[in-house]
From TrEMBL:
Transmembrane segments: none
Family: Belongs to the short-chain dehydrogenases/reductases (SDR) family.
Protein's UniProt name: Uncharacterized protein
Biological-process GO terms, alphabetical: abscisic acid biosynthetic process
Keyword line: NADP, Oxidoreductase
Organism for this UniProt entry: Amylocarpus encephaloides
Length: 266
């Protein structure tokens, strides 16, 4: 039996690759059939509905070209999702960009990272919460005598909990912001039945980190990970699915590392 209500609708940003795509696949495997997938316009995004319905024929998939730094794009994606599925129960905010940036660098790169990694999550969370507040609460699938209005997972980073890498001030700042936003919003919207949590991945093999997969990086950085390897996107997706599900009904405002133990070594 699925952990999710049969009519559940999930929205995922950054869904065309890496962690976002792994979460889309995990939610489909875990029984969700209505998915709205947002990412920058690309052939991979356009190909998603056909690619995913091959393995999950019952799935209804919207692929919506969306720049999360643009309020108008997000507003339009939310409207199209609600027009198609009539509600949003779960939302995952995984869109993000990496890169270096120190406090004395040009501010333009910092502004771009803030716009995508921090304001992008802010705008999505704001509009998704507004939509969830329009929806009736429903009973938990676990049978416990409580109600839920929805669940949100933000994808932060180990860099949201510490300055986990050198020359990373801009990224570290945006990810600390995501962790803080998660706490504040969980506090504000918990009483309305909305749970909001954050996942803080360590080094996960995705497009974002592909350029780092060298023997030097492995010797210096990956060798410090207690589990002594890169993480896989799927390993982040298992936790996301749990936090989104009613099995996590008493969990909100928390940030969880998925890092092979790296955070305990510093
Ligand atoms: P990824 O494979 O590059 O996925 C990120 C996705 O977000 C890409 O599809 C990217 O599109 C999309 N994106 C970028 N800018 C966007 C925008 N303005 N609007 C909408 N979508 C946008 O990298 P990932 O590793 O899965 O990253 C997912 C999240 O995990 C990010 O928030 C990242 O900071 C976080 N994270 C990753 C790691 C890691 O080790 N991989 C560790 C900690 C945290 P394009 O490919 O077209 O740019």
């Amino acid at each position: 039996m699925s952990d999710f209500h049969p009519e559940t609708v999930a929205l995922i940003t950054g869904a065309a690759s890496g962690i976002g795509l792994a979460i889309a696949n995990r939610l489909l495997s875990d029984g969700i059939t209505n998915l709205s997938l947002l990412d920058l316009p690309s052939p991979s995004l356009s190909a998603l509905p056909e690619a995913l319905t091959k393995n999950f024929p019952a799935a209804r998939i919207l692929a919506l070209p969306t720049d999360v730094s643009q309020e108008r794009d997000i507003s339009s994606a939310i409207s199209l999702t609600v027009a198609e599925f009539h509600r949003i129960d779960l939302s995952v905010h995984a869109a993000g960009i990496g890169g270096h940036g120190m406090v004395m660098d040009e501010t333009s790169a910092m502004e771009k990272m803030v716009a995508v990694n921090l304001m992008g999550v802010w705008l999505c969370e704001s509009m998704v919460v507004k939509q969830m507040l329009l929806q009736e609460e429903r009973s938990l699938t676990t049978g416990l005598p409580y109600k839920t209005r929805g669940s949100i997972v933000n994808i932060g980073s180990l860099c949201g909990l510490s300055a986990a890498r050198p020359a990373g001030a801009t990224y570290v700042m945006t990810k600390h912001g995501v962790v803080g936003m998660t706490k504040a919003d969980a506090r504000d919207y918990g009483p309305k039945g909305i749970r909001i949590n954050c996942i803080c991945p360590g080094w996960i093999k995705t497009g974002m980190t592909a350029g780092l997969d060298t023997s030097g990086f492995t010797d210096q950085i990956i060798s410090r990970v207690p589990l002594a390897r890169w993480g896989a996107s799927e390993e982040v997706a298992y936790l996301a699915s749990f936090l989104l599900s009613d099995k996590a009904s008493f969990i909100t405002g928390s940030s969880y590392t998925v890092d092979g133990g790296l955070s305990v070594t510093v």
